[in-house]
Amino acid sequence: MLYQKETFINCPYCGESIDVLVDDSSGEQSYYEDCSVCCAPILFVLTEDESGEIQVDVRRDDE
Ligand SMILES: [Zn+2]
């Protein structure tokens, strides 16, 4: 079974708001996904807060 939730993020490169599907079933993880607007590799960092909710953080690769 897949637990994917739709989340809106702002691309750290071009600033466009894009919606992505986040897999929140496997806990904390980080991975790259290309921006659908500018094709830059966005680093997605998923962290779990105290209540078990997955928080999505996006970063540039070069920061
Ligand atoms: Zn972009």
Describe this structure in words.
This protein is an all-beta fold and 63 residues long. The chain has one domain (4-59). Helix content is 0%, strand content 54%. The protein is built from no helices and five strands. It has strands at residues 4-10, 17-23, 29-34, 41-48, 54-59. The strands form two sheets. Strands 3-4-5 form a three-stranded antiparallel β-sheet, with no helix packed on it. The protein has a two-stranded antiparallel ribbon with strand order 1-2. It is globular and about 30 Å long. The model has no long low-confidence stretch (mean pLDDT 90). It binds zinc ion. Zinc ion (ZN) binds at residues 11, 13-14, 16, 35, 37-38, 40.
Features:
mainly beta; three-stranded antiparallel beta sheet; binds zinc ion; two-stranded antiparallel ribbon; globular; 0% helix
The main pleated sheet reads as: 3 strands, antiparallel
Approximate shape? globular
Residue share in helices?
Answer: under 10%
Helices and strands: which structural class? mainly beta
Element order: H for helix, E for strand: EEEEE
Strand content: over 45%
Q: Note the total helix count.
A: 0
What binds here, in terms of ligands, is: zinc ion
Number of domain units? 1
Low-confidence stretches: none
